[in-house]
Amino acid sequence: MLIATNSSKIDISLEVKTAELAKSFSKILKKGDIVFFHGEIGVGKTTFIRYLVNYLQTDNHLIQTEVTSPTFNLVNEYDVGVFTIQHYDLYRLTNSQETKNIGLFENQKEILTLIEWPEKIDNKIDNKIDLFFEYEENMNKKFLTIKGISNKILNEIS
């Protein structure tokens, strides 16, 4: 797993920057990794995940699939060739007990786990990467802060 650190805010106001960052980020991920996506609705979490999944599929010579938010079905699964991605959206869950009923972290060593709205999870997860998406005060700009990777790797992807 990656070494925890803090990063500076990366401006992702332009979707092309989000795409570039997701492509770079896709190169450091492996099965067994857990990535938490924090941020309010509409700030770019699912857009980042869409680019991430599609870059991994392209890198492994697979056809890109449609990547949507799993808000209503809670989890979407994607084959990216070398492993499977499980993309969870916990927004609709009303309490932490519900996270135990959906199989979250069951096959964690065999898949890449991406979780939107991880605040709904009670149990502490030590080895994870946190992505914090946020708007600037006037909501004209969007920023991403990455925690849970070394400064060296962070410099390579940002």
From TrEMBL:
Keywords: ATP-binding, Cytoplasm, Magnesium, Metal-binding, Nucleotide-binding, tRNA processing
SUPFAM superfamilies reported in the protein's UniProt record: P-loop containing nucleoside triphosphate hydrolases (SSF52540)
Keyword match NADP: no
Top-level lineage group: Bacteria
Pfam families with a match to the protein in the record: TsaE (PF02367)
InterPro entries associated with the record: P-loop_NTPase, T6A_TsaE
Compartments (UniProt record): Cytoplasm
Major localization listed first in the record, in broad terms: cytoplasm
NCBIfam families found in the cross-reference section: T6A_YjeE
PANTHER family tied to this protein: TRNA THREONYLCARBAMOYLADENOSINE BIOSYNTHESIS PROTEIN TSAE (PTHR33540:SF2)
Protein family (similarity comment): Belongs to the TsaE family.
Protein name stated in the entry: tRNA threonylcarbamoyladenosine biosynthesis protein TsaE
Species in which this protein is naturally found: Pelagibacter ubique
